[in-house]
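Supplementary Methods, section 5.1.

A reviewer requested that the exact input to the structure prediction be made available. We therefore reproduce it here, unchanged from the version used in the analyses.
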Amino acid sequence: MSRPVRKVLVIKLGALGDFVLALAAAAKIREAHPEAHITLLTTPPYEALAKASPYFDAVETDGRPEDAASLRALIKRIRASRYDRVYDLQTSGRSSRYFYALWPFAPKWSGIAKGAAFRHKNPERDQMHTLERQADQLKVAGIWPDAPTAPGEAPAPDVSWMGETAIKIRPTRPFVILVPGGSAHRPGKRWPAERFNEVARYLTDAGYDLVVIGGPQETPLARIIARGAKGVRDLTGRTDFSQIAALGAKAALAIGNDTGPLHLITAAGAPTIALFSNASDPDLCAPRGHVTIIQSNNLDDLPAATVLVAANAMLPRKEKAPA
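The structure derived from this sequence is encoded token-by-token as follows.
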């Protein structure tokens, strides 16, 4: 008779888009182990989001130790916790090394590490979207026997548990969220702010309010976007994850680059236009839901008119944007 699963560790370190997608797998893990004490090992940016979720009983944020002493302390704590099961949703060289450090007394482990009890060995895993890949991983682990693993089949994450959060905006008109930011070290993933400005001017003329979100480093982009467009609210640097999700639940549309906040907005329910360059592959990592993907090898070459045509198709019939 197998040992009851009473203590579970889930490993998911980031980035935000990947973390949001992994919430779908976290929901299945909680469903499979309703009575277990589930701990998440992550990093500080996701602590509040994880604690607000219904999937974890505890959250630890030292998942990326910066020196040997911190790594030893982490491994010592994992060993002392005597987990019955570990679900490594990060499936990186770093997280696999945690398994090797625990050998030969590692818990039953779901991941890619050699020797893991539930090793995910699908040779196509690196060509699968994150949602199907993690569904297949949990199928191998025995907790999701009918996991949908064909392209496009796995369900999107559900963040409805985030609920209503106080946000400092109460638009009287339908509003559109613009997400112009992205990783500073990957500028090729950003559509030019001047093109977002073209979209903003069309949409405000059509009767929409516009909300620009991002970190404080995106404030200069928000200023460019707001030029000549009335009804643009700059919320860069002024929203946490819960507030972003609350906006996404109410938005008529979201338009943005392939970046974490767009994943959260889409998961909250906003119809979304996601802009991809050749720097990332939407077949592997795009947000899922009511989503239109627009891909251009170089986003500098993507005209605003193309995005507005997509917006026109996604907005409610009586609220069309001019194209």
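The mean pLDDT is 93. These observations are discussed further in the main text.
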